[in-house]
Amino acid sequence: xxxxxxxxxxxxxxxxxxxxxxxxxxxxxxxxxxxxxxxxxxxxxxxxxxxxxxxxxxxxxxxxxxxxxxxxxxxxxxxxxxxxxxxxxxxxxxxxxxxxxxxxxxxxxxxxxxxxxxxxxxxxxxxxxxxxxxxxxxxxxxxxxxxxxxxxxxxxxxxxxxxxxxxxxxxxxxxxxxxxxxxxxxxxxxxxxxxxxxxxxxxxxxxxxxxxxxxxxxxxxxxxxxxxxxxxxxxxxxxxxxxxxxxxxxxxxxxxxxxxxxxxxxxxxxxxxxxxxxxxxxxxxxxxxxxxxxxxxx
Length: 298
Prior knowledge:
about 300 residues, alpha/beta, nine-stranded mixed β-sheet, two-stranded antiparallel sheet, 11 helices, 13 strands, about 25% strand, globular
């Protein structure tokens, strides 16, 4: 399964903070925002990933991640000239996706929850049609909304409805089979001139091939593209990390635990940031998983 992170857009809801920098590079806790969606793909076991961003921002993401080899990943980059809708990411990434399934995640979405890795691995194992992830929200009018019947089957999808039929927001994480690219190519732009991801999902729904995975109690999800959401998510991350002594979206730790890299390599990555608490945490995790002290090399 391939992965795509859509990290484009102007970040206008965060102006003036994003006038000179991509919102996906703003910090949540001590990590750039984009660490969180990238961690989601890694937790799903996905190692072949494309980051789609504006021409101005691509060099900054490349500076941050390079080719991804340090994490045991393969990271490619592609430009989105202007924000033409989420579904355009499927077209831009067509060559990357090929004929297989793809996980598309938005660069400003934050996910965290117990056993989330197991949920992601299970749902990505054999993707047929479209798999959406729903989350209960207090004001569903701000989101795409999914409605299920008494048996939990997905029956409708609405984009920012005035009178929502449910409180289940469709999050910015989507799993698709190999038909997604052609479906996106056949879309007509919306009144806003964009290729809407909800329209892709509706095609799958009409085929009877769309399914909703409910992320309910025990999970946290937010669209961090507003000042308030950015602040609240940062407070959530800080509280959990300080109280539990663990790190959310620590890419080096995920890479080690998933077997993408060995503990020695992870330790060296941490040593490069050894003056920070993040770097020291990575080093400690690597030593714990290796079962012995590890001297930094090179």
